[in-house]
Amino acid sequence: MKLFINPNSNLAIYEQIVNQMKNLILTGELKSGEALPSIRKLAASLEVSVITTKRAYDELEAAGLIRSVAGKGFYVCEANKNYLKEKQYVIIEKTAEELVENCKSAGMSEDEFKTMMMELWKNGK
């Protein structure tokens, strides 16, 4: 499992961890029942505070994506992928609404917007 912390992101570090782990679960890279690194091990590998990784794990557990097994660690739960996907779509839609508003404020035409989006889609990672 590879996670990346962007120090320039507007998101808090724990939110970056949560979002990336949600994505790994949704894409199946993290499978149901798979053991996760301990809170301390994850903190050390990301060079962040144990408190930060604990908060991320708490958020993921509250969302029902991971579970804690006393004395053994954290494991990926059987996730409802449709539910996760829908939640991601809601976030994307909100972001898109803000983007469209910014483009309109900048005087961008609908055709210019579509062209930009198609280029970003083609060249995206």
What's the topology here?
Elements: H1 13-27, H2 39-46, H3 50-62, E1 66-69, E2 73-76, H4 81-105, H5 110-123
Antiparallel strand pairs: 1-2
Poorly predicted segments: none
Number of folding domains? 2
Task: Work out the strand percent.
Answer: 5-15%
* Radius of gyration from CA coordinates: 18 Å
Provide the structure class. Answer: mainly alpha
CATH superfamily of the largest domain: Winged helix-like DNA-binding domain superfamily/Winged helix DNA-binding domain
CATH topology (fold) name of the largest domain: Arc Repressor Mutant, subunit A
Word description of this protein:
The protein is mainly alpha-helical and 125 residues long. The protein is 60% helix and 6% strand. It is elongated and about 60 Å long. It starts with 12 loop residues before the first helix and ends with a helix. The chain folds into two domains: 13-76, Winged helix-like DNA-binding domain superfamily/Winged helix DNA-binding domain (Arc Repressor Mutant, subunit A); 81-123. The model has no long low-confidence stretch (mean pLDDT 91). It has a two-stranded antiparallel sheet. The protein is built from five helices and two strands.
